Amino acid sequence: MHLVRNIRLLRKMNNYESIKHLPAEIPAPRQFLRYCFGFDRLTPEEILDEEICFGYSVKCVNLLSKVLGIQKKTVRGWGDNPNFEDMPQHARTTCGYVQVALSPEILKRIASSEYVAPRVTANQFINEMLLKGSSYSERLKIVSSTKFRGQYLTLLSETLTISKRTIYEWGRDIELPKMPIYHQHTLAYALAAYRKKQQQNIAA
Fold it and tell me: What is the pTM of this model?
């Protein structure tokens, strides 16, 4: 019984380590958009030809708006298109998870169809990463531990690339009711990226 409990605990620790390193690098907005439209596989000359095509700027704004769940007006305020130098850190982090989770083929379909950006609450994310697979008694023991709050705050902080102090302002319990919706989009893509990596590891 102790062996089973230790294996489950080790699995939770591996979940934590896996999500911490996704993505390894956050792409610049322009590089992310090239990935989305499949231009990153082209030569520099071909990429430039695509980027100066009529309508590309509109496509960039539309896609970012859909994927990030943010109004087009807000996206346009992030600087010159397609560089978007003023894109906030939370949006850049989300783009990094999107690039891991979704293929260019899927992103192209999103660009040409109706799409609602997915959302995952803090509670759902923590349950998936730290509690999934545990029995009721194990879950009760985990959440009752004095270390649990620190663990899930650290996990959220590193996943969202924000400070724990900011997270404290969203509420005292695991529900974090004041968490902004755009961070829920980030958690959804982070979870999708983690699941995809897990599937790849199983298939390897």
Answer: 0.87
